[in-house]
Each structure stands twice: as C-alpha cells, then as structure tokens.
Write a structure and sequence with these properties.
Length: 269
C-alpha cells in the first residue's frame, strides 16, 4: 500500500505491507532509485513479515530539500522515520539495503546495534574511496543539461548495470528522468553521490556489529561496485553469509528475482 508521512515538514513516500505485530523488514533503495526497484518482493514477504519500503528523502516520490546528504544524515533520517510511522522503540528490525541503501543500513546498524535483528546487504557501497568509472558516468548523465543527450547517457549507464541489457525496460529510464527533473533532485543525487563515494566504513567500526546475523548478496557481473567490496565486509563480519548471484549485474533482485527472493526468505526464516 502506497503511503505518505510528514517528517520535519517534508513529505516522505513509502509502501507498507503486512501487520505491525510481525517482524519489521525495512527496504532501503540505492542512489537515484526508489521503492519501486524492489518490485513485488516486499509484498511477497508480507505473508510472514511487516515490510516497509521507503523512498529516501531526496529520491523517488519524497521531497528533495537543499541539504547535505551525508550517510550520517540518512541514518538519522531512517531512525526518525521509523518512529514517525509507529515502530515501537523496543522492537528490533531487519534492514535490507541495496547499494547506497546498504551503506545507510550499515551506518544505521552501527549507530543502533541494539535495534537490528538481521542485516542484508545487496551490492552495497560503503567500501569505496573514490567513484568507480561507471558511477562517475552515472553522475555525468544526471548532470547533463541537454535533455536528449541525458536520456542517451542514462540509457547507456543503466544498460551496463545489467548483465543482460535487454532486460532494461524503457519505462525505467523514463521514470528515472522524470524524477531527476523534480526540484532539488539533482542536488540530492550529487550530494549523496559525493558523500557515499569519497568516504568509507572503517573496518574497526564494523567490530560493533561483527556478531550480527548478516547476508551479503552480490551480482557476479556488477560493473558499479566490484565484488571485492563484499570481501572487505567479510573481513570483519566473518560469520556473514556471502552469496554471489551468477549472471546478474548491480541489481540482482531485478535480473534474478526468484533466486534472490528465495535467498532472502531462507535467511530471514
């Protein structure tokens, strides 16, 4: 069910399924994306879980104010959001984060370890010290001033995010462009981009959550964030289960939906 809430004067969009007396599962999307990227997965999980998929402030259908979109800001935003929609303080949650969302999920877990039951990171950022070439091209496409050229650049970047470019639907490009043209959206994208690609999680800080049940999922053919980053997480999160999804790119839950869904369901169950 599509819902909106107001947070510090900002309109925030989210989807919610299941009932509040079930274990809470929060889905956090990646850079430039929205809750739509998860498709039917949150609703499919709602038979056994209370699922929430948010449009982060600055993205999707949520407001995009002029501010500094740091990982710390996003983490505190998530905490306030959960309280705003009525998640009890004493309840633990499960977070599933993709790309930028994985970085935010990890930071939230580090700041609130007592509130996390399980953590799922999918092709997560947080281990980069500079943008990868495709990430830089992603930013360049967003900031392109010529509308026709921007569409071509976005299409080219998105195609390389897939292991099978033919799976990219034109509506995905159209929707992205319509949202990036909203007031404040380009600023939010660029600010989040710069903050997430030039800083990284210290391995020492991960010690705080080294015993947290964690599943790390990675597309075998991810051209955005290399699989080596999964190994960096695993250096400290030694008990984490690492799953490489064959023949999938940066968003394996899009290209291999059934396989990733089953991995998630098995881990959560």
């Amino acid at each position: 069910m599509q819902l909106y809430t107001e947070l510090d004067g900002l309109k925030i969009k989210y989807d919610e399924y299941g009932t509040a007396n079930q274990t809470h599962v929060l889905f956090i999307h990646g850079l430039g994306s929205s809750s739509l990227v998860w498709r039917d997965t949150p609703q499919a999980l709602s038979e056994n879980f209370h699922t929430i998929s948010i449009d982060l402030v600055g993205f999707g259908g949520s407001d995009a104010p002029e501010l500094d979109y740091t990982i710390d800001y996003f983490s505190k935003f998530v905490k306030t959001f959960l309280k705003q929609i009525g998640i009890p303080e004493q309840d633990k949650i499960i977070i599933i984060g993709h790309s930028l969302g994985g970085y935010i999920a990890t930071e939230y877990a580090l700041q609130n370890p007592e509130k996390i039951e399980k953590l799922i990171l999918i092709d997560s950022s947080g281990m980069l010290t500079q943008p990868t070439p495709l990430l830089q091209q992603y930013l360049d496409a967003v900031l392109e001033s010529d509308s026709k050229l921007r569409r071509n650049k976005v299409k080219s970047v998105f195609e390389r995010m897939y292991a099978h470019p033919e799976l990219l639907l034109p509506i995905v490009i159209d929707l992205f462009i319509s949202r990036i043209e909203r007031p404040g959206a380009k600023h939010a994208f660029e600010s989040a981009f710069r903050n997430s690609t030039t800083s990284s999680i210290s391995l020492e800080s991960l010690e705080k959550i080294k015993d947290l049940p964690c599943l790390i999922i990675w597309g075998e053919k991810d051209n955005v964030i290399p699989f080596e980053c999964a190994d960096k997480f695993r250096q400290i999160l030694r008990d984490a289960e690492v799953t490489k999804i064959e023949d999938a790119g940066h968003s394996p839950f899009v290209e291999k939906t059934a396989i990733v869904y089953q991995k998630i369901l098995t881990f959560l169950s």
